[in-house]
Hints:
The longest helix has 26 residues, at 16-41. The protein is built from 10 helices and no strands. It has helices at residues 6-10, 16-41, 43-56, 64-79, 89-114, 124-148, 150-153, 167-187, 191-210, 219-235. Helix 2 (16-41) runs parallel beside helix 9 (191-210) and helix 8 (167-187) packs antiparallel against helix 9 (191-210). The protein is mainly α.
Amino acid sequence: MLSNNPFSILAETVSPLAMQYFIIAMILLIAIGTIIQMIHHKNLTYFFNNAKKAKLSATKELGIGEKTSIIAKTTVVDIGTTSELGFGKRRLAHVLGMYGTILFWLSSAVLVFCYTGVGKSNSETWSMLWHIGAILTCLGGYWFWFFLRVDVSAEAHPWYRIIKADLFVLALLACATFGLAWSYTQFNNQMGLSYLFLTLFVASNLILFGGVYWSKFAHMFYKPGAAIQKNLAEADGSRDNLPPPADAPEQFGLGIKREEPKHY
Length: 264
Ligand code: HEM
């Protein structure tokens, strides 16, 4: 099943062109949802005003080379490993889900555009990557959903309590889960079930990408921007108008060892 391209078999009933248009429509939905969210929440305006204000208190002018190196380091370390989540389960779960999703989306596009339709060859590698991406998304996402979510792990709410903020993670998990279920049932020739899971897969994609405006989807664009701005502000001495760190040693007393921090 892992080396099977489910889109290729689907092409016997659905035109590959329709699948390609579907992917393009999803990309447009991301762009529209994010732009409307930025206009409505005014976060981009706040971000640029803040950066402009901070620049006034800069103590050092950064050259192009310095800026490039800070941006490259931030991309690899801070963004690539979600370093703001510290060391531990939360970061590992996020990294699994993040790379899983990137792999799942990228391989979906490659499979649909390059390996689906009459006369197109098969790519076991890309089919495998599609399944691995979905499995990693499920691993990281379900770990987060059942055990790590703040309202579950720190506020003792039951895991099945659902609020609007869960739209993103639930839609993402639904896409990966129904995608895998569709591939599995299609591979085993359970045609009725396979069409049911395909319908659920399409519906969860529409909810995930159509819900960008209401969900946390766009954090994947905002967070990298904020990390780059923070590191540039630290290097040019403006520190986002925050006071410099105290030079006294960090002494919290023994009480800090009593309980694992769970206050977000
Ligand atoms: C394809 C890219 C990404 C995906 C699929 C993804 C997925 C997720 C998911 C599902 C959540 C849980 C949302 C919730 O609170 O319900 C989350 C939270 C979070 N994401 Fe991402 N993310 C991506 C990129 C990024 C990037 C690039 C950063 C930072 C540089 C980032 C930082 C965070 C942080 C700090 C949280 C809060 C985590 C927590 O509460 O444990 N994410 N992300």
